[in-house]
Amino acid sequence: MPDGAAPVLDVRGLKTVFRTRRGEVHAVNTVSFHLERGELLGVVGESGSGKSVTMMSLIGLLPSPPAEIRQGQVMLGDQDLLKISADALRDVRGAKVGFVFQDPMTSLNPVFNVGFQIMEPLRRHMGLSKAEATDRAVELLELVGIPDARKRLGDYPHQFSGGMRQRVMIAIALACDPDVLIADEPTTALDVTIQAQILELVKELRQKLGMAIIWITHDLGVIAGIADRVMVMYGGQVVEQAPVKELFGNPQHPYTRALLKTIPSLTGARAERLQVIEGQPPILTAEPTACSFRARCPHAFARCGTENPARRAIGSGSVGHGHDVACHWTPEVAHA
Amino acid sequence: MLDETATPLVQVSNLKMYFPIYSGVMRLRSGEVKAVDGVSFDIYRGETLGLVGESGCGKSTVGRALLRLYDPTGGSVVIDGEDIATLSAKALRKKRPTMQMVFQDPQASLNPRMTLAAIISEPLVEHTDWTAERRLERVFELMDAVGLNRAFANRFPHEFSGGQRQRIGIARALALNPKFIVCDEPIAALDVSIQAQVVNLLEDLQAKLGLTYLFISHDLSMVRHIADRVAVMYLGRIAELSPRDALFSNPLHPYAEALLSAVNEPDPNRARRPRIILKGDVPSPANPPQGCNFCTRCPKAFARCHVEKPALREVEPGRQVACFLYEPTNPAGSTGSAEATEHLQHGVSQ
Is the pTM of this model over 0.95? Predict the structure, then answer.
């Protein structure tokens, strides 16, 4: 992880709201984070915690209406992605920011062969001729480990297995050498042995290409194996952020702690009973004025109900760099 | 474990479930998908047997064939002394209350037009001659048992969260006091924090009601938590069937070993077992490889594996493995790893 250099991506105070017939849903509430060059940032959270919506907001993938980005700044290099036109944004998507979606079955177009789908961004963004694009497509398929690449360009998505389709998706996302790759639960739909293959592939590609990756998942095991830094989201907010070893070794937010305890381990002692987080995730119908975890939190006290905690740094460093947490509770509170 | 655990509640032997493939203009039968191809195991009373494997390995088909939601192609399933596979429709119907199922997707397995009370009492309407009041009383009892508020009885499934819906599915399965429940990926569709709630509930109910579970899952760490013994399936066959602790500390079958090594441990600070990356994908069950089903991906495969199918046999007390590396007559010393040889010798000395 290079220090000092400007981050590839810098997001500040992002707010996304969905307007529905039953009122507003505040899916993303003032989310700020950055991504260093060559770094892999893991984003963890339950369904509905706003992790996917945050990433889709960045590059204008949410249909509007109902989605509306209320506030924020998304700096990719020196460009604010929220301010540029739809056309300019189209040049960013696919060229500078690649996206891999969760379900490889539905994110490829079944009526085009995979060669066409890989070549599409190459021709659109890089202006390659058909022959050049074909060569590059073969190169990409070989890069992601699909044997017999040139022959398979003419195959359709249904002729590939799940793991192979996800490799094709990764090839498409990598086609134009993006600075940032956003992977939204890329291995969730895959079996463990295939997931292991894809994780190895991503590690290998990172070393070869040096791009920055945002990896969204709810699987803490995957995060532990692959991420440099982790951001935990809950109720549309970042509740904790830390380097991966620090987060697993010294979790601060009660939600992170509980989450780590609910997962049974494959090695080590086997607990008689699983720890549970009682209750349900919050429904975000209004802008939070209190901590959204308080109803499920074992440490909640008066202040949690009146003030939404801001992120504060743990130890040395500042918010966003090093370790930070959005929680009022400290050991001192317990003694007071 | 008590004496009564000595007789298995469920005895499955050589269960086969083939699905026909029709092709051509005449829709002629041109082959079959061998979803389950000769599976045998016992489940003891009060026990939880975990059934793990990748998608398409046939684990859900086993679960469904066990309750005869499919008519098995061959083999027998003896539950509490009666062979389910050959029972007449009428006798099977009488048998149904003793065996129930909890499905994977609580969204799809609950009728959206029925209230919670109607869903849970439906099995009672089918199988008992109780009055409406008595049924409602039982519904309330069940709702208490699975931790649903009685006030919700007249609500519809869409008003509940995923975890609550799964509780409704469990309450329905419990309505007739079954002895045996097949849980088909009951937590796969739930969030991590909710999964633990449902698993704890299943364990509590087992302790209270003496239930026997077949717990089908692809989540190995959850299976390690809940199961007493674990069967690992690959392409329609059981690769290994071992007690939980033995399997997780020392998997014998090369597939079980690779599967366990592929799971991500949620702690970067802990040393992990070396990862075995399997090459390629699972072959199609319509066209399984000759010889051992796993031979196309097995890092330890040798000549014999490509010719003959290994049978599931006991290699250590309580541990069954379908692999030639553990055949006593096999000169595997030169082909297997040092570790495999060691087990082999162990097996011989028994």
Answer: no
